[in-house]
From TrEMBL:
InterPro entries: Cell_div_FtsQ/DivIB_C (IPR005548), FtsQ_DivIB (IPR050487), POTRA (IPR034746), POTRA_FtsQ_type (IPR013685). It is found in: Membrane. Keywords: Cell cycle, Cell division, Cell membrane, Membrane, Transmembrane, Transmembrane helix. This is Cell division protein FtsQ. Signal peptide: none annotated. Residues 27-95 form the POTRA domain. Pfam families: FtsQ_DivIB_C, POTRA_1. Its main location: membrane. It comes from Thermosyntropha lipolytica DSM 11003. GO terms for biological process: cell division.
Amino acid sequence: MRKVITACLLSIITLICLYLFLHSSFFNVERIYVTGNKEVSEEEILEIADIFPGINIFEVDNRLCSKAIELHPMIKKAQVIRHLPRSIEIRVEERTIWAVIPYNDVILCVDEEGVCIDRRPNFPAGDYPIITMEKMPAKINLGQAVQPAGMKMMYQIWSRLTPDMKRRLSDFHYINSKKEVVIYTSLGTEVKFGSDDRLEEKMELLEKVLKLEEEFNNKGNEAIEYVDLRFKGQPVVKTKD
């Protein structure tokens, strides 16, 4: 019985010592730094994180801090990492511009999830796909996702294009009411792509359409008005009168 009591007392003393050690000044944070950021400054991220030197490293709520940082429209993902005994790393993944959307008198810059990360008076430098939509929200704030279902569909198409195919396309139009995509080539051909069903098949057909369009253009033949890929079988091709 005495041995049991002694063991219990030793366990309690050990736990108390461990608790006091973990909450001692030995684990007070001395260094807080940010990695992965390019556009968002370290100062801005640290201000949002609300972590300051001197706090005990185990008192930092990693999850809550990460969620707060991810509220920034330019931050896609944040992770707060403890480096014992006295350092905190904030690792971020920034959102990057994938496409641009003309909207009223500004240009919306969105990432592949459709999240608006910037509003600019002019088109940004770079080869970004131009996207228009049948219907747009009355107001769009930074950090707001613009038609995520449609953006996902168009990104699936874009990510499967070769560099040469991307060069030959002008813009994408999303028809909200039908959940369909229309693609316009740089030579003015309208490609009725439709939904994302039979995606791989449609991508192969789109490549053939672009080659056919180039052949028509090189030979001086009548231009193609539109190509309809929405239905199974051979695509419908209509030339301009």
